[in-house]
Structures are given as C-alpha cells and as structure tokens.
C-alpha cells in the first residue's frame, strides 16, 4: 500500500541508529539526511521535507538521552511526533452545527472520486444518526447525475433529482427547499468537476457558495496524483476557501507525498481519507495514527474502530482488553476470522495490522475465502485446551491437528505463527509505553 516504501526506508534508518550507543550530532545528521531523501522519494514537497528535517534536528540534538530508550527509539519517537504535527496534529471533525439543513459542498477535479466520496460521506453521516440528502449539481455531465442518483438508491437516501436543463444555482435553491421538505438535516452537494482548475468553474462554485452558505467546502483530491493534488488544493483554497480536504485512493500505490504535504502547504486540514472503491472505504483522518502507520507501528486504533463498526462496541473493548492482558486465545482468533468477513475488504484490514512481517506472511498465503475456511478448520481440529493455550501444541499435536483438518503440518505452523505474531504485536501496541506491569521494573 501507499506508505510501504517510505516505511521500509525509515525502518532501515532507525535500525542503523539502533546500533549506536547514544545520539550525537554526527549520527543524527547522517540519519536525517537519509530521512530527507526518503521523504523526497515519497514525493513529499521539497520545502516540507526540508523544514521537517530541520525541526527534527532541533528537537533531537542536544536532547538528553532518555534512560529507557535506545537512540533509535528516541529518534522514532521524535519523528513520530513531528510527522503527526506535519499532518495537522489531531483529527478535525466536520462542522455540522447550525440551522438544518446544514450544507456540505463537495468540490474537486473530475476523476478525483468526488461523486463516490459524496455517497461514502452520506453513509457515514447515516451511521452517526443524521439524515442526509444528496444533490447532484454537475449539469455538464448527465452520467455524473445518474451515478449519484444510483448511489443514493443503494443507500436508500433522498436525492434531489436535478436535470441537465437546470442551472446549478437553481438546483441549489430548490435542493435546499427539498431537503427541508424531506426533513433532512444535512445537504450534500456534488458540484461539477473539470479536468483542470478553470476560472469559469470557480466562478460557478463561488455563486453556489453564496446560495448554499455551506458549513463545509470539502475538496476531494486524488492522492495518486501526488504533488498535483497539493497544487490543486492550494488553488481551490485560494479561490474558494476550502474548509477540509478528503484525500482519496490511499489504498493505491502512490508514494504518499500528498498526504504528508497538503496540510503544511495549503493549511487545509485533511478530514477524511478514501481507502477503496466500496462505499464503506472512508475513514476519519487521524494524523497520529497515520504517522505510526508510516513508521511501521501499525494502526491498531483504526482497526479497533473499524471492528467496532462491524462488531458491537462491547465485543471490541473485550478484544482490546484481551490483547492488553495477553489472553487472546486461538478461540478468539477463530471468532476474528469468522467476523473479519463482515469488515469489508481483507486487504484493507490487513493494511492496518501492525508489523509488515505478518502482513507479508499473510499475503504469501493469499488469504481468500478458501484460506479462511482452512484456517477455521485447523482451529476446529484443536482441543479446547489447545485453543486456550497455544503453547502446549507440540509436534505430535500439530500432526494430529493437520490430519484432523485435512491440512498439512506446514499450514498448521503458519497459522500458529500468524496467531503468535499478531498477539505479540498487538500486546506491544496496546501496552503503550509501560508495557504492562511485568516490565515496569526495567524502565
Ligand atoms: P468524480 O469524477 O470525481 O466524481 O470521480 P468518481 O467518484 O466517479 O470516481 C472516479 C473513480 O475513482 C471511480 O472508479 C471510483 O471507484 C474511484 N475511487 C474513488 N475513490 C476511491 C478510493 O478511495 N480508492 C480507490 N481505489 N478508488 C476510488
């Protein structure tokens, strides 16, 4: 996925630092040179990369080496904080307070994913117990109107059925009245897109803004276009006053530069990210989680949030508790497998799991529906005791389990390895700094 290369590069840099006894100006400078190269290669704006490295240097050099951290860990900590800040520090929620219907105006270039994102956002609002109404206002492309009407149908949401004969301003006025009449509290307007930023379009959007008085003007930008997305965001912001950016296609293999640069270049916060074509593939953008994802620490929080959507909250909390206390058993693992199907795309879920090692391992296994069935069969062939305590599963038990499930010992081994790795990494993540009671004495 998007940040794989950058993650790999940074992890290598940190690994080299790990061998050093303490942080000196020299070893930090050489590490930072490499960090800067890695950022540039990830298509981060050159000025952003330069400022970023300078701010890290300032924080790192001369800092007392903390007893509990190795130099590598210490730099990771500093880089993590700086990356988080670079992306805006904290999640920026939508501003939805106001006299209903509050309006969200969606703007962006053609092909950026604007229409899809409008529907995704409506779906999210429904989950938050709001009642959105959708409005297609791209009168230059009948297909765009049809697309949004179809998506609204899938979501069973009211849609103001505009026609290409109408002027956008007229659509805006009538849609406002329609939303009121339908008792909708939120109006999502999908505006026209062009291939390039042009003044005519900007003028039209400006007139719509006056009529709609939107709470938010959300720019939808394609992360795959890298620095172009940053430029486009800047132009829209200058001419229209963008209140938030939604960065799409972060599931693709672009290098991530846009996500890292947009905030500091344009001063517009990224509010959501699109991570797939399906309507559930929209996530609140959390700078801190994105940063730990980039640094290869995984994104446990996002995963738990996703899990909460699919499971109920109580279950998710129990799960978090189990990871924390290290009582996550193979039985829990099996339940996870069963329910993971509900979570949508598997790739998406795997992308959030901590530890690239495990990710690659699972990818090699080419996890698909059939693989799930096999993994479930393996766990089913275990005894209750084995599921509770995987440590007792010795060679002869592995043989028996393989025979019982019609699989091979290698497959049993692989499953146990995945289970153990995820357990270990989740525990580290959940434990946070103190890593539970046992280790406290060491710090
Ligand atoms: P618009 O012209 O800006 O309205 O763009 P569309 O909503 O029609 O989307 C253009 C294409 O991008 C479609 O094929 C969408 O399925 C795809 N798309 C939108 N968002 C995402 C995303 O987050 N990830 C991926 N992989 N594809 C997306």
TrEMBL record:
UniProt organism field: Desulforhabdus amnigena
UniProt cross-references to InterPro entries, sorted A to Z: AAA+_ATPase (IPR003593), P-loop_NTPase (IPR027417), Signal_recog_part_SRP54_M_sf (IPR036891), Signal_recog_particl_SRP54_hlx (IPR013822), Signal_recog_particle_SRP54_M (IPR004125), SRP (IPR004780), SRP54 (IPR022941), SRP54_GTPase_dom (IPR000897)
SUPFAM superfamilies to which the protein is assigned, alphabetical: P-loop containing nucleoside triphosphate hydrolases, Signal peptide-binding domain
Lineage, highest ranks first: Bacteria, Pseudomonadati, Thermodesulfobacteriota, Syntrophobacteria, Syntrophobacterales
Identification of the protein by name: Signal recognition particle protein
Primary role: Involved in targeting and insertion of nascent membrane proteins into the cytoplasmic membrane. Binds to the hydrophobic signal sequence of the ribosome-nascent chain (RNC) as it emerges from the ribosomes. The SRP-RNC complex is then targeted to the cytoplasmic membrane where it interacts with the SRP receptor FtsY.
Sequence similarity: Belongs to the GTP-binding SRP family. SRP54 subfamily.
Keywords linked to the UniProt accession: Cytoplasm, GTP-binding, Hydrolase, Nucleotide-binding, Ribonucleoprotein, RNA-binding, Signal recognition particle
Cellular localization per UniProt: Cytoplasm
């Amino acid at each position: 996925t998007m940040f794989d290369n950058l993650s790999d590069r940074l992890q290598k840099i940190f690994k080299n630092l790990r061998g050093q006894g303490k942080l000196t100006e020299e070893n930090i400078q050489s590490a930072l040179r490499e960090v800067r190269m890695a950022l540039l290669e990830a298509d981060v704006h050159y000025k952003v990369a330069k400022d970023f490295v300078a701010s890290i240097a300032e924080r790192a050099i001369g800092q007392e080496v903390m007893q509990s951290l190795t130099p590598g860990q210490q730099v990771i900590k500093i880089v993590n904080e700086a990356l988080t800040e670079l992306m805006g520090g904290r999640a920026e929620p939508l501003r939805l307070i106001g006299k209903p219907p509050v309006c969200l105006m969606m703007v962006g270039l053609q092909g950026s994913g604007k229409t899809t994102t409008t529907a995704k956002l409506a779906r999210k609002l429904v989950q938050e117990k709001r009642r959105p109404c959708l409005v297609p206002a791209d009168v230059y492309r009948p297909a765009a109107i049809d697309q949004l009407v179809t998506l609204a149908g899938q979501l069973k949401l009211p849609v103001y059925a505009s026609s290409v004969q109408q002027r956008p301003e007229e659509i805006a006025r009538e849609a406002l009245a329609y939303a009121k009449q339908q008792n909708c509290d939120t109006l999502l307007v999908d505006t026209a897109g062009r291939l390039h930023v042009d003044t005519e379009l900007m003028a039209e959007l400006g007139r719509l803004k006056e009529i709609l008085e939107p709470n938010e003007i959300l720019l939808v930008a394609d992360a795959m276009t890298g620095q172009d997305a940053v430029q486009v965001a800047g132009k829209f912001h200058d001419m229209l006053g963008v209140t938030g950016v939604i960065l799409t296609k972060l599931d693709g293999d672009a290098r991530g530069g846009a996500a890292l640069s947009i905030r500091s270049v344009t001063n517009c916060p990224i509010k959501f990210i699109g991570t797939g074509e399906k309507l559930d593939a929209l996530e609140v953008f959390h700078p801190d989680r994105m940063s730990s994802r980039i640094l290869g620490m995984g994104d446990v929080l996002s995963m738990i949030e996703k899990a909460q959507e699919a499971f109920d909250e109580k279950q998710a909390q129990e799960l978090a508790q189990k990871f924390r206390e290290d009582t996550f058993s193979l039985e829990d693992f099996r339940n996870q497998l069963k329910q993971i199907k509900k979570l949508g795309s598997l790739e998406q879920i795997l992308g959030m799991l901590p530890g690239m090692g495990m990710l690659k391992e699972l990818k090699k296994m080419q996890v698909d529906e059939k693989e799930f069935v096999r993994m479930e069969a393996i766990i089913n062939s275990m005894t209750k005791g084995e599921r509770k305590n995987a440590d007792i599963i010795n060679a002869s038990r592995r043989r028996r389990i393989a025979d019982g499930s019609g699989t091979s010992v290698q497959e049993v081994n692989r499953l146990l390895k995945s289970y153990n790795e995820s357990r270990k990494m989740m525990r580290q993540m959940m434990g946070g700094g103190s890593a539970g009671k046992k280790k406290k004495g060491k710090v």
